[in-house]
Design brief:
Length: about 200
C-alpha cells in the first residue's frame, strides 16, 4: 500500500497537479476546488472503476483538504482506504497542513510547497513590513492602523504581508495560522474590513 502525497503550502495545488501528471494520467480536473463535498468521494470511486486503459495509471488531484467539511474528510478517508490497493493514484493538497484532519495526515506523506514566482511582486514595501512587524509583536492597534491607511490598496497590502511571511518561513505555527486567514482573501472578493477581520482572528 502506497500512501498518497499531501502537498501543502502556497504553491500546493500546482505542485499536486504536476505530480499527478508525472505519476499517472489525470482522469479529471482537480476535485474539490469549489469546496470538497461528500459526493466528491463517490465521484473519485467512480473514476477508479471507469478510468479505462492507458500507458500510465490513472491519477486524480483532491483538495483543498484544509477547507473540507468534517463529513467530507471522513468520506475521503474511507475512499483512501477502499482504493489503497487499486490502480488510481490519489494526490492530495491543502493550503494549510494544520487544517487537515489528523487521520488523513497520518495516512499521507506531507510535502511542503514554498511560494513560487507568482508570489514575487512589487508589493513587499514598507507598508507590508509595518504590518508584519505589528503582527509579530501582537500589536493589533498598529496592525489596524496600517490596514486603514492602505484601505484603497488592501489587496496589495495583504499580498505583501503574505510575501513577508513566506520570506520569514511559513513552517512556524503562528505564521501558518496567519497565512491561512489572510491568503484566501487575495483570491476572491473582499475589502480592507475583511483583512482587518482576518487579523482580529489571527491575533485573538
Amino acid at each position: 500500500m502506497t500512501s498518497p502525497v499531501l502537498f501543502h503550502g502556497p504553491s500546493a495545488r500546482g505542485e499536486a497537479v504536476q505530480h499527478a501528471r508525472t505519476v499517472g494520467r489525470m482522469v479529471s480536473d482537480p476535485v474539490g476546488d469549489d469546496g470538497l463535498k461528500v459526493a466528491d468521494s463517490r465521484e473519485v470511486v467512480q473514476m477508479a472503476m471507469s478510468s479505462g486503459v492507458g500507458d500510465k495509471p490513472p491519477s486524480v488531484v483532491i483538495g483543498p483538504l484544509d477547507r473540507a467539511t468534517p463529513e467530507a474528510g471522513d468520506a475521503l478517508l474511507k475512499t483512501l482506504e477502499d482504493l489503497a490497493e487499486g490502480p488510481l493514484r490519489i494526490v492530495l493538497w491543502a493550503d494549510f497542513l494544520g487544517g487537515v484532519i489528523g487521520t488523513i495526515r497520518s495516512r499521507s506523506l506531507p510535502r511542503w510547497c514554498p511560494p513560487d514566482e507568482r508570489w514575487v511582486s512589487p508589493f513587499m514595501d514598507e507598508h507590508a513590513d509595518r504590518l508584519y512587524e505589528a503582527w509579530s509583536k501582537r500589536d493589533l492597534s498598529a496592525a489596524l492602523d496600517v490596514i486603514v491607511d492602505r484601505a484603497k490598496d488592501w489587496q496589495a497590502l495583504g499580498q505583501g504581508f503574505c510575501e513577508v511571511l513566506a520570506e520569514k518561513g511559513l513552517e512556524d505555527a503562528e505564521a501558518l495560522r496567519a497565512w491561512e486567514e489572510v491568503r484566501p482573501l487575495l483570491d476572491g472578493k473582499g475589502s480592507h474590513l475583511c483583512l482587518a477581520s482576518a487579523f482580529l482572528e489571527v491575533l485573538s
